[in-house]
Amino acid sequence: MKPRMNIFQIAPEGTKAMIAVETAIADSGLEHSLVELVKVRASQLNGCSFCIHMHVKDALKNGESNMRLHLLNAWRHSPLYTDRERAALNWTEILTRVGKTHAPDADYELLKARFNETEIAYLTLLIGAINAWNMIQIGLRAVHPVDKSAPVAA
Predict the structure, then answer these.
(1) Is the Cβ–Cβ distance between 129 and 25 less than 8 Å?
(2) Could you tell me what percentage of the chain is helix, strand and coil, using 3-state DSSP and rounding each to the nearest 5?
(3) What does each C-alpha distance from 116 to 38, 59, 84, 112 come to in angstroms?
(4) Is the dihedral of CA 67, 94, 32, 23 positive or negative?
(5) What is the pTM of this model?
(6) From the CB of residue 1, how many other CB atoms can be counted at a distance below 10 Å?
(7) How far apart are CA 138 and CA 24, in angstroms?
(8) Exposure pattern of 21-38 as b/e (b: 16+ CB <10 Å)?
(9) Contacts of 26 (CB under 8 A, 6+ apart)
(10) What is the tens place of the pLDDT at every residue in 123-137?
(11) Tens of pLDDT along 86-102?
């Protein structure tokens, strides 16, 4: 796979604006572990290997367990996630698939039981941002780094 372009070089002001949104989310008070779970889950749904690679590495570096990352695709059937994380992961799936789900009131009510309005606002921005990054990286064929120690398909 060959990258189509480096958006950071071609559109630096646009990517700086995207990074400013990321900074606001990081400063919002949402738990870093929850933010990374949301980023990985949305990236899984969208099939963005670049973003999955980046956010799994970030999550592991910040203390997330391998098992929770491995089971993230099956979070609904695992006791390893808190009710707050479940609400956030559900909202992630609802918004990532918004063309099909239309963000039902029942799902929003589940979210309101675990998050205040400010947290919901930043969580929603987070989900929108990671979906935008996924579209950008997939559309421009970004290739994740390959660790030298990891086996690579021939």
Answers:
(1) yes
(2) 70, 0, 30
(3) 17, 24, 11, 6
(4) positive
(5) 0.93
(6) 7
(7) 24
(8) ebeebeeeebeebbbbbb
(9) 32, 35
(10) 999 999 999 999 999
(11) 999 999 999 999 999 99
Structure-block tokens of residue 128? 């929108």
Handedness of CA 24, 124, 32, 8 (dihedral sign): negative
Residue among 17, 20, 13, 64 nearest 38 (CA): 64
Does residue 43 contact residue 135 with C-beta atoms inside 8 Å? no
* C-alpha to C-alpha distance for 111 and 129, rounded to whole angstroms: 19
Query: Which residue matches tokens 């997330």?
Result: 64
The answer to whether residues 80 and 108 touch, using CB atoms and an 8 Å cutoff, is no
Mean pLDDT (whole number) for 104-122: 98
Q: Please count the CA atoms within 13 angstroms of the CA of 77 that sit on its side-chain side.
A: 4
Decide if 38 contacts 127 (C-beta within 8 A): yes
- Rounded Cα distance between 146 and 120, Å, is 35
| Residues constituting the chain | 154
* C-alpha distances in Å from residue 48, one per residue of 43, 78, 89, 135, 148: 5, 23, 17, 8, 21
